[in-house]
Design a protein that fits this description.
The longest helix is centred in the first third of the chain and has 28 residues, at 2-29. The chain has two helices and twelve strands. It is elongated, with a radius of gyration of 40 Å. With 301 residues, it is mainly beta. It has a domain at 84-267: Beta Barrel (Porin), CATH 2.40.160. The strands form three sheets. An eight-stranded antiparallel beta barrel has the order 3-4-5-6-7-10-11-12. A two-stranded antiparallel ribbon has the order 1-2. A two-stranded antiparallel ribbon has the order 8-9.
């Protein structure tokens, strides 16, 4: 039994020795073929010479192909349109419709906006507004707002900046100002005894009003350079000189909500930039990168 155990131990040690010798011989044979190097991920891709196209046809002149053409890590959104992409003029006629259904004040304006990359649209609006109001319910006063100019400046942001510029879906902001006058007449009040008292007329009242607007709207092409559009606006007063509270402010109206209908004409609009051609896939270790003398075209397919 002892002799048998010794034989097994000898065989086991011989096997270990043989395995270690084989590993050592393999390492010695491959010495110098494995050279650890420090890789540089930021190094530019080296070009590869191509003798055949992707269909296996021999090129008249070999070309260099750079597998990695763009090293930008983050792709930023961009518009396919040039910086200056035309001017659009418009006319707002919403109050022409509203006066037909009983609105007592009107504001009409024209606008001009510049297209920047079909993305941002700086805009100026210039108009005139007036109104008349009688408190018919209680017959307490009458207001006559004289025609006065107003100006608004702002910007629109177009969500469809990569699409056809004839169509817009946008949000925007405006800052408005108006210097206006009005008369308040037939002013009546009631005292504690229920008696009606007539107060003096307030004539030629003057105020400089500033206000802001936020809005959202659409613009669609009708034909050629002619388009139509509409938007909904939320308005908020900023300041009235003298601490006054006018019934009507040109361009603002009498309340916080408003809307516009516009007819537009666009001039100087440019075509969309041409898209870059599709790039060929990076080269693979095929006969395409070998010398045509070494590999026939039939094998490059």
């Amino acid at each position: 039994m002892k002799t048998g155990k010794n034989s097994i131990l000898k065989i086991f040690l011989a096997a270990i020795f043989f395995l270690m010798a084989a590993i050592s011989s393999y390492a010695q044979t491959n010495r110098g073929t494995i050279t650890p190097v420090e890789s540089d991920d930021d190094a530019p891709q080296q070009p590869v010479m191509h003798y055949y196209d992707k269909h296996g046809n021999k090129l008249d002149t070999p070309v260099l192909y750079l597998a990695e053409l763009d090293t930008v890590s983050k792709i930023r959104p961009s518009s396919p349109y040039p910086l200056f992409n035309g001017v659009t003029v418009g006319v707002n006629f919403a109050d022409a419709i509203m006066t037909l259904i009983g609105q007592k004040h009107s504001s009409y304006d024209v606008s001009a906006m510049v297209s920047l990359h079909n993305w941002f649209f700086p805009i100026v609006e210039l108009g005139v507004g007036w109104g008349n109001y009688t408190d018919n319910a209680n017959d307490l006063y009458k207001v006559k707002a004289y025609p006065a100019l107003y100006t608004k400046v702002g910007i629109n942001y177009n969500f469809l900046y990569k699409s056809n510029p004839a169509y817009m879906a946008y949000v925007g902001a405006r800052f408005g100002v108006s210097s206006h006058r009005w008369d308040k007449t037939d002013i009546k009040t009631t005292n504690d005894e229920g008696e009606t008292i007539t107060s003096p007329d307030e004539l030629d009242r003057h105020c400089v009003s500033t206000y802001g607007e936020v809005l959202a709207g659409l613009k669609v092409k009708v034909a050629g350079p002619f388009s139509m559009g509409w938007n909904v606006r939320y308005r908020f007063g900023l300041h009235n000189s003298g601490g006054q509270t006018p019934w009507f402010v040109p361009g603002f109206g009498t309340g916080p909500l408003g809307f516009t209908f516009n007819a537009y004409l666009t001039f100087g609009e440019k075509k969309k930039k041409e898209s870059l051609p599709d790039l060929l896939p990076p080269p693979t270790p095929t006969p395409d990168t070998q010398n045509p003398e070494d590999t026939p075209p039939s094998q490059a397919k």
